[in-house]
């Protein structure tokens, strides 16, 4: 590998203003303005990034350089008299190599960009081995999942990463601007929120990674009855990865009024589908002194806000998705973001009405429909895609019982392509009702002592919802498989990277 | 429990503007403006919150109500002719109860607030059982750790939650404003970043929570050799909780240029100290085309930014910490936030110089000092508190080797009270050097294949750091024990709530 030094030893310099510690320009800084870089024509600029393509013509060489700050490359035009041109001839400058290019910004002759870089000097920073798996030719998304460490260098996954980032930041902005406090709910927990979910066990009874592969079962500490001796485990009892931060968020909502979590949650379900992950990020707001109407209003306003943010801030990436991933995704999101049609856009449907709709449907379902059944994906899809949107789900213990004694104050928000995006409910704030529900479901009141305490001391009506962040990414980008909506997906048999 | 209905069934109403979906005013909205509420004098307002204290005098009753939106309570003044006054007499209105109060905002006679609420009507929403453990009398922070579900209702923990939230949001703002992309690094991983860290095992070989306590050891699947049969586990091999997202962040930095993680990380160390948690949040920025100087400049600018943000946005909470938790904390942070003294403020010290300083110290250390030793807490404390700030640490495999062949391009940022707040390094971007290091440390090159690929295809100089978020909370608030800096701390023997 050729040792190359940067022309300047120090790439960045400490700025004088907090928040501007680096003076380095990125391609998005150069080309991202309203005139797409024309204001900088004539300036000498430096670009650092990775070579996407190289076209050598008789008199001139075109290099497309990308630094990940935007979908757009910087087109670099080089004559044979440019300093470092020998690296083109020797093959060092090739797809995948990282380079440092200095040149003059000029108006471009091409139709694809307003400006391009007339190269004065180029330095290969790191060459690319010819085995580089992501060449210009199109590669499948299945193949790229096996190269999760390199796939962000493609247009699709670069754009997904930027839109995912924008959705995350918009999430924080929305809640912060509305007075919610971000809470980190615990990841490791000895309690089981849903009272049923399939959970991963977290333990130190099995030795750390290097020895784990060769661990004998009988080295696991056991009691004289042959049971696992949990007293010797790290937490002194069985512990698990959380399936939801909701119960913990409730403790803070009943102190700080409005809070939200945004963190990873886990399901050990053996579902190898395009809609499930074993590890995914959830957003769970919890509102005190609030009922189901407030909850739905919050979910609606939230979704409009983040969609609007992405449309305003990720124009180039969204046009890419609109062209290559899902035709019409921008129109679909635009309808969602129009706040003046908000009330029309979000049709609310009771559970009973949803069942009625499904019973009247001409369609034959795999799972038969009757009142009381849990809605399956096929039912949800029918309602959102062939009928319309909004309906509740089957009762978890914490959902507030309605006066009819049969239904609970819950809602689901179903959206096209994804199905259930948001599930929420008003929580049972009445101590006696909640205790009865725990008894009915044979859940231990002792293990929920702290959750019950919230109803014992200054209980308030409160409500919240959970939103699977990767499904939001799918919804906003049109990406079909949820494993392409998170950098390093975890699923049965798959914890690589 | 008395059944009370809200005077209005719907607490909130859908607003017309995205981002203003609720019209409910919180105490911070009423009292948080520059004139501390005087602009609203004469208005009828509703407050919903929890009773902190109740003083019944002969002619008038004072209620201090807090809704968690600020440290300040709303002082509510009630005569016996107010609607609902009977609830004072019957004892329903008591410390810990939740109430709905309507009244007229008037200028306050008291010196502690500019405005107070002249009560017209009060409704108890949820009474408080007399066993409420958080009464007015001061309770210890040790006791409150056993009541982690109720402690956010205290002044101290409400303030910690709000400052923690402000630090988190400032973190996102800083990186977003500087063009960094937030990356979610995986929580469950089959690789071990540090090559050594003590990790938690994640498994489904032990059944889910309800049955775990009674699981026999011999129900764990084993091979014919008596080893744990990992092929039957969820991921088909041993999997662990991450100790750092750095390696994963590097994959995205070498595609998108500048990225950061902000997520939970785990250490299964049996350390029952005031400085360690088994589960903590980390911020790990990674900068491409950057060296150690850029890294230090980024860490410096970041810390100044978030400290300034908290001083500007959490004035009341910071005054509380300054008075009750650490006298002088505001001055200490102000020095840190002055960007015009930035270069003077952060003294940089090489490892060799740090050792020199310690060798010259008059102090006797428990762990003897010599060149090559890892710095212990007592050494770090000496340097920051008795000498000054900044120094590097002992070599992890990914740290870039300096030309002296002895040291690596690493840095630690040490701060008073906390010790090591930030640890960072320039990463080894040279394939041959990195492979040699893996060999030296007897780490398997095969399991790092994807990490090595980053050096094979367009490698670039890059650098980053890790910051333990709870230590930042300690640094900013003066809170002594790290278990009080996170809502639900996890430590050996402790995974409650």
From TrEMBL, chains A, B:
GO molecular function: asparagine-tRNA ligase activity; ATP binding; nucleic acid binding
Aminoacyl-transfer RNA synthetases class-II family profile domain: residues covered: 162-487
GO biological process, one term: asparaginyl-tRNA aminoacylation
EC number: 6.1.1.22
UniProt keyword terms in alphabetical order: Aminoacyl-tRNA synthetase, ATP-binding, Ligase, Nucleotide-binding, Protein biosynthesis
GO cellular component, one term: mitochondrion
The keyword Protein biosynthesis is annotated on this UniProt entry: yes
A UniProt-annotated Pfam family: tRNA_anti-codon
Catalysis performed (reactions): tRNA(Asn) + L-asparagine + ATP = L-asparaginyl-tRNA(Asn) + AMP + diphosphate + H(+)
Keyword Aminoacyl-tRNA synthetase: yes
Alphabetical list of PANTHER family matching this protein: ASPARAGINE--TRNA LIGASE, MITOCHONDRIAL-RELATED (PTHR22594:SF34), ASPARTYL/LYSYL-TRNA SYNTHETASE (PTHR22594)
Record-linked NCBIfam families: asnS, PRK03932.1
Record-stated family: Belongs to the class-II aminoacyl-tRNA synthetase family.
Protein name according to UniProt: asparagine--tRNA ligase
Species the sequence originates in: Gossypium klotzschianum
């Amino acid at each position: 590998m050729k040792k190359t030094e940067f022309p300047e030893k120090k790439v960045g310099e400490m700025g004088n203003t907090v928040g501007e510690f680096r003076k380095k320009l990125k391609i998005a800084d150069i080309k991202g303005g309203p005139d797409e870089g024309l204001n900088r024509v004539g300036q000498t600029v430096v670009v650092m990034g990775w070579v996407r393509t190289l076209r050598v013509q008789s008199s001139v060489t075109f290099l497309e350089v990308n630094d990940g700050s935007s979908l757009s490359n910087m087109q670099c035009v080089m004559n044979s008299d440019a300093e470092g041109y020998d690296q083109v001839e020797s093959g060092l400058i090739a797809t995948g190599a990282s380079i440092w290019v200095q040149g003059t910004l000029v108006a471009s002759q091409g139709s694809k960009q307003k400006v391009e870089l007339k190269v004065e000097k180029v330095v290969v920073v790191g060459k690319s081995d010819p085995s580089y798996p992501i060449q210009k030719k199109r590669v499948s998304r299945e193949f790229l999942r096996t190269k999760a460490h390199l796939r962000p260098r493609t247009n699709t996954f670069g754009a997904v990463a930027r839109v995912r980032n924008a959705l995350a930041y918009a999430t924080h902005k929305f809640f912060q601007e509305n007075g919610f406090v971000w809470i980190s709910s615990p990841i490791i927990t000895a309690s089981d929120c849903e009272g049923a979910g399939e959970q991963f066990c977290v333990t130190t009874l099995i030795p750390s990674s290097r020895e784990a592969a060769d661990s004998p079962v009988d080295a696991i500490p056991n009691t004289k009855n042959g049971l696992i001796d949990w007293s010797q485990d790290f937490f002194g009892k069985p512990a698990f990865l959380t399936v939801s931060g909701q119960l913990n968020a409730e403790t803070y909502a009943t102190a700080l009024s409005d809070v939200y979590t945004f963190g990873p949650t886990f399901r050990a379900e053996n579902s190898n589908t395009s809609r499930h992950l074993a590890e995914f990020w959830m957003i769970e707001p919890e509102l005190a002194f609030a009922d189901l109407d407030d909850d739905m209003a919050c979910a609606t306003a939230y979704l409009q806000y983040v969609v609007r943010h992405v449309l305003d801030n990720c124009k180039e990436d969204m046009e890419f998705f609109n062209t290559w991933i899902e035709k019409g995704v921008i129109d679909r999101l635009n309808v969602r973001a129009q706040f003046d049609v908000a009330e029309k856009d979000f049709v609310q449907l009771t559970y009973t009405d949803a069942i009625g709709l499904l019973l009247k449907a001409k369609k034959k379902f795999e799972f038969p429909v009757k009142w009381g059944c849990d809605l399956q994906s096929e039912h949800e899809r029918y309602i959102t895609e062939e009928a319309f949107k909004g309906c509740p789900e089957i009762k978890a213990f914490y959902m507030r019982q309605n006066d009819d004694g049969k239904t609970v104050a819950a809602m689901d928000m179903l959206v096209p392509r994804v199905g259930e995006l948001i599930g929420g409910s008003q929580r049972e704030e009445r101590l006696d009702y909640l205790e009865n529900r725990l008894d009915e479901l044979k859940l231990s009141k002792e293990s929920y002592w702290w959750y019950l305490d919230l109803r014992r001391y200054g209980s308030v009506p409160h409500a919240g919802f959970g939103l699977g962040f990767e499904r939001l990414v799918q919804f906003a980008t049109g990406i079909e498989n949820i494993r392409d909506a998170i950098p390093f997906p975890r699923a049965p048999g798959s914890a690589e990277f």
